[in-house]
Amino acid sequence: MTALVTGSAGGIGSAIVRKLTAEGFSVAELDLVSGFDVADAEAWEHVGSVELACLNAGVLTGDGDITTMTDAQYRRAMSVNVDGVVFGVRRLARVMPRGATIVATASLAGLTAIASDSIYGLTKHAVVGFVRSVAPQLAERGIRIQAVCPAWADTGLMTDEFKRDLGEQGYRLLRPEDVAEGVWAAYTSEGTGEAWVVQSGREPLNYEFKGVPGPR
What we know:
Elements: E1 2-6, H1 11-22, E2 26-30, H2 41-44, E3 52-55, H3 71-95, E4 101-105, H4 118-140, E5 144-150, H5 160-168, H6 176-188, E6 195-198, E7 205-206
Parallel strand pairs: 1-2, 1-3, 3-4, 4-5, 5-6
Antiparallel strand pairs: 6-7
């Protein structure tokens, strides 16, 4: 069995790699530190077929104040968190075999508000919406796509100050391994276009979208 993981050098990415390896996958690790930029559309054209793709790369903006955020901060978050998923899905849908699966790492911030980084929230809402919207056409190709929506995890993305603030609020950080288990739950589910919530102390769970009221 073959797989790829983007953002594989980070805390969550490396945990996903370990989980998939333990489950018998041969895993290709794609990360900026090893020369692969998920925001580079041309780079994706050299990615081959796998049976499972975990599109996990993601960044925070580093600035919660929308009035002081720079263009560069905004564009980098959009390019990594959104373009990196869209470009990946576009390429993989062309080369993956029937029965293959894509799992995109979104965030709990893709299902609720995140006042501390509104642009990060924007990007993760985009990922969830994209996964749900593109699922039907991928299903026609025999490919499933899922989203994983973890709460905050203890990774290198967080500053010590941010972790301390969360702790003072009584917030329990996830372990990267918890997120990897959420990825596995999404992968082993028979569904597609789902959003799997991962929170501390709970088993991964398929989020139930209530939908919108119909016309009268």
